[in-house]
Amino acid sequence: MEKIKYIIIILVAPYLFSQEESLSKSELLKIEENADSLVQICQFEKPIELYKKLVKQHPNNFNYNYKLAATLAARIELMPRIKGAAYVPEMMSQLEKTYEIDDTSLSLNWIMLQVYLEVPGFLGGGKRKARNIVEKISNISKKEGDKAQRLYENFPRIKF
User: Fold this and answer.
1) Neighbours of 141 (CB within 10 A)
2) How far apart are CA 106 and CA 112, in angstroms?
3) Considering the domain boundaries, does residue 123 fall inside one?
4) pTM higher than 0.90 for the full model?
5) Are the CB atoms for 62 and 102 separated by under 8 Å?
């Protein structure tokens, strides 16, 4: 009987101790406002940490996931290409997770299109994925779809 008690403690304890206390709505709002403020002045490391905290609390919240994905993309955009490549997989994963939550967001689809056009296939981008996003944008808005089609056809001659 004693062995069973220890086995249960070993199996359950990590789960119990790894659970962070749930944050109140006002605490979540403060975290989001702080992260948003830092993004506005082009500081990205701390907001990424803060948005990750929000996503951990609410993993299916589109707004939190979107802000995290966009901030990851912005951080990479400011880095030299070689250094930024190390962060691309995390960004791609977050973008695709956010896209799974809501694929009807026009702004997210535009980010996805730009990323898929710029990121090579071996890192998760590519023209085929970009083509699918152009079709999705066209389904959301004919006018935006026409713009997306022009961008797709003229890439890489057009720089964002």
Assistant:
1) 13
2) 10
3) yes
4) no
5) yes
